[in-house]
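Exercise (ungraded).
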Amino acid sequence: MKTTVKIKRYDPDIDDVAYWQDFEVECDEMDRVLDILNTIKWEQDGTLSYRRSCAHGICGSDAMVINGSNALACKMLVKEAGSSITVEPIRGLPVVKDLIVDMETFFDAYKSVMPYLINDDPVPDRERLQTPEQHEKFEDTTKCILCAACTTSCPIFWTNDEYLGPAAIVNAHRFIFDSRDQAGGERMAVLGTREGVFRCRTAFNCTEACPRDIQVTRAVEEVKRAILFKKI
Amino acid sequence: MLHTFDAVIVGAGGAGLRAALAASPRCKTAVLTKLYPTRSHTGAAQGGMCAALANTEEDSWEWHAFDTVKGSDYLGDQPAIDIMCKEAVDAVIELEHFGLPFTRTEDGHIDQRRFGGHTHDHGKGPVRRACYSADRTGHMILQTLYQQCLANDVQFFDEFQVLDVLISDGRAAGVVALELATGEVHTFRSKAILWATGGFGRMFKVTSNAHALTGDGPGVCFRRGIPMEDMEFFQFHPTGIYKMGILLSEAARGEGGILRNDKGERFMERYAPTIKDLAPRDMVSRAIQTEILEGRGIDGKDYVHLDLTHLDPEVIDEKLPDITEFARTYLGVEPKTECVPIQPTAHYAMGGIPTDVDGRVVIDANDTPLPGMYAAGECACVSVHGANRLGTNSLLDIVVFGRRGGEHMAEFVQDVDHAELPNDADEPTREMIDAILDREEGEAVGQLRAELQQTMTDNAGVFRTDETLAQAQEDVDEIAERYESIAIDDHGQTFNTDLAEAIELGFLIDLARALVAGARKRTESRGGHSRDDYPDRDDENFLKHTLAWLGDDGSIELDYKPVKLGRYEPQERKY
Ligand SMILES: Cc1cc2nc3c(=O)[nH]c(=O)nc-3n(C[C@H](O)[C@H](O)[C@H](O)COP(=O)(O)OP(=O)(O)OC[C@H]3O[C@@H](n4cnc5c(N)ncnc54)[C@H](O)[C@@H]3O)c2cc1C
Ligand code: FES
């Protein structure tokens, strides 16, 4: 089948402003949108620029806005995207070139929640025990691949890039609810500030955008509740 | 721009990050990575990481070592295998302490499951040895190690692609890297360098490997006179999604999945009567290929079925959620009720940069180290995997030898000064980049790469003969010649991925040459290297590692070094 792809282009070395360009691509309905971008890059226009690596939804490189919504190009097939596809960079982060955005502020927000296990007890000889029930409490948020699809789908983040955003909160949740972690209080102090979790207006965009099917809004709500009721 | 560090680590997958955790507290360390660390392909690993914890049934590190030696078809170096299997237990426990959320047993211990080629009592039957986190173990390892690096203030240079290594006075002196965002060329002066750039499966058409796995580290070293070891041993994983190559972990068979041919027959019973579908990968891939060649592929086509329909749906949801989702997303198949079309997929490079057990790069048949040069992970060849890697042993390899390499490197830099940088250290890199950027017309990178992948898949794949390998050699030589006149569309400085891909193709071509040359000369079948014209293993002539050097004219020179044997004498490999 033939698909028309409309891509938002911008090269800072050449262009003053971004513009739309159309490509026509021969493809199969089981192809990924990423396959289409590759076909364009390899056969039609090598200047088309985007990040990609794993090609199966696991590395988080290729979040972009496809037909108006955030998705990973490697997880969306042509049969869902249709025969006329629009592709543009994720919103709220500065565009570097074509579909590539500057991820610095995104990763800064992630780093600010201390995304690592903190436990000051003496290190035991064997594993710290954790029951399947305890594990279950935070398992969902361990799936995050830091693709930024959630954060850049959030209307609050678009208007205020100081807002930590759902991805940072998801990663804080992953540790706050881990029975082995002891720094929940410190993380909740970060998340309880003006730019923290209470900015969230429960728009649910993030949950819909997550390519890993993480219940993002639920995680945000659980963190809110933990802060309000001071218990985990 | 010039930077000065004690140690530079190239790559931020599991091997690079674990090395960084070891080196960074003790010396000024930089980690250079062409992808954001969390985009590394370690994150794609699914099934597990083995260690004889004996949490669910009796096990011992010696059994693990035996299985690894046997799995390697006796080409693995036994002293290195002993180290890896012994240190496995501590490595897993350490990851748990770092925060890794392993799947647990009811009483809260790390759960373990079965995996291909892992047995109790030296081959008596399958054993539960793989520690795992659902089917996203690699994701958890990558995230956990990155988290620890953040906690320990490791310094990263994200999206810096290393394109050259500097060697002076016979010592490592630094690396040259392209900053992708700006196009600027940077020189990193350093007393020691550790390569951890992962695999190079993108040499093949159907592969489980990421687009980024183009063998840059080995490629750079190869061009600078460092030999490559055992390149002919490339693992084809039995269960890649048909046509796409996306992996469906062996854990699917560990949990009870079965392979079936067109007649619905469980054909592995014929090839490996004792452990059947859990035989090592080289054997299962050959069995699938044989079924296909003999007309028993599904509908006579080039694939067979992975059958999970008899598994408890809850087991599928709890233990194999990601891979069953892949089948739904990419094939539109529901694994709970339908069989999944699969075919062998190019998966893992057993060969690579030769090292000793401390990660030091060794450059000849006498294992002479090149001072200051280290390598770990899939780009290295210790060799713990020999002719065929067992599932779960790579995640183990990257953490054990990543740490050992990092520690040795941190020790090494304490007592030495920086080597003198060669004059115009970055000149060769600039010339290479400019030559590609300045050419207005020429061969297209995408087309050349597709031709390389096609011939490697057709002629240097699961089964090989002298005839097919000669064909591959001829094709690769021709592709290499045409590569000299490649031209790209993007002539800009900002994020020039067109340029990056062009350079990566060059590395793939050089490494393909080594693979094919080694495979042609090895007139035997062993592990992942299977010659139709020499179907038997030949210990008399080939119980040895291949070393390949790249000549200026692209020719390959071969030499050999002995396998380091140990407790286990080579035997016939039956399962
Ligand atoms: C789909 C899949 C599933 C797997 N499942 C398992 C499993 O269950 N168990 C198991 O034991 N093994 C498994 N493996 C194998 C294992 O995951 C890999 O061998 C291992 O993760 C490799 O780790 P690494 O650190 O060596 O390299 P990688 O994780 O691939 O990292 C390479 C790094 O090098 C960087 N890099 C590359 N080139 C350059 C350059 N020029 N300049 C700068 N940086 C560069 C990249 O940015 C990246 O950070 C699996 C492999 C695949 C593909
Ligand atoms: S390329 Fe890795 S998530 Fe899409």
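Further reading is listed at the end of the chapter. For now, observe: The longest strand of chain B covers residues 185-195. The mean pLDDT of chain B is 97.
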